[in-house]
Amino acid sequence: SCTDQYFYMNNRSKNTDDHNCTDVDKLMQHYYLPVGYAIVFIVDLVGNVTSIGVYLTKIHPWKSSSIIMVNLAITDLLYALCLPYLVYYYSNGNSWVLGDFMCRFIRFGFHFHLYSSILFLTCLAVFRYIVVMNPLRVAQVQQKHWGIIACSAVWLIAAAGLTPMFTILTMENINNKTNCQDFASTSRVDDVRLYSWFLTAFGFILPLVVVFTCYIGIVKKLSKGPITTSPCRIRAQRSTVLILVVFVVCFLPFHIMRALRIETRKMQEPSCMMMHVVNAAYIISRPLAGLNTFFNLALYTLSGDMFKKAFLETYSCKCWMNKARSQVQLAVINCRH
């Protein structure tokens, strides 16, 4: 009959699609994610330990921006400490051996870093905006208590907003392996979908609007007025531009691909090829989101806290050469006597 013929052709088409389907996402999980996370881990660990060391030993007194920068570096460092677990997990064929709590904690740590970084960068953009728009309030804005208030608010908001993730995340047994599912791939699709849109709206889109508004305000302010080339204003403009680049390059692709990943899982009968391609793009965006730590390291040099000078004094080749030369001269003098 016509009905039997329809179902036969439909099943044949589906089987052909499944046969031609590629497991590129699985290959990327096994090779791309461990390499990507390992690179981010090395740069993140070395860069942020160095940055925190410079702030603690060389930069005094601290201003509000210094406090925000140190908290941003601490957030990035905590993120780096989670990455070795993910490197081992994906290189070990998606086999999680550390138990349910650690699975939830590591996945929570990834998102806690993501949204804490977004909020810290938003705070910096707002502070820069105030400095440019109200130069007479620079001294007031730079007081330490404003940095403490801003950082306390960020930690509390991020912790409160991400606490539900502990209950949403799941582990699954697939092919005799315990899989620690990432947030967009967990089995509770309906809960994940609603919560993902909540995080995207309030944790990314709203801060993006704030940062973009600050950038537009700074550009307009610097385009007029008698003192448009002051170091403070130029530094504020460059910092805000860099923050906006981080939002667009690192955070935007991740949120778009996470939404697509969840939506394809909600579709009635998505094609095999569509599922794997979307998941592969989502996999690409995850280490990309962690690359914001690279931009944060560049942001420290624009903070106005003499970070660049302090860094060069501590770690420059010239500094070490001078120390080595002085030690050699001292040794020669001792030998002569």
From TrEMBL:
Location(s) in or outside the cell: Cell membrane
Recorded superkingdom: Eukaryota
Keywords: Cell membrane, G-protein coupled receptor, Membrane, Receptor, Transducer, Transmembrane, Transmembrane helix
Pfam families: 7tm_1 (PF00001)
Transit peptide as UniProt keyword: no
Residue spans crossing the bilayer: 35-56, 68-90, 110-134, 146-169, 194-219, 240-260, 280-302
SUPFAM superfamilies: Family A G protein-coupled receptor-like
Membrane topology reported for the UniProt record: Multi-pass membrane protein
GO molecular function: G protein-coupled receptor activity
GO cellular component, one term: plasma membrane
Domain G-protein coupled receptors family 1 profile per the UniProt entry, residue ranges: 47-300
Name of the protein this chain belongs to: G-protein coupled receptors family 1 profile domain-containing protein
Gene source species: Anabas testudineus
Lineage, broadest ranks: Eukaryota, Metazoa, Chordata, Craniata, Vertebrata
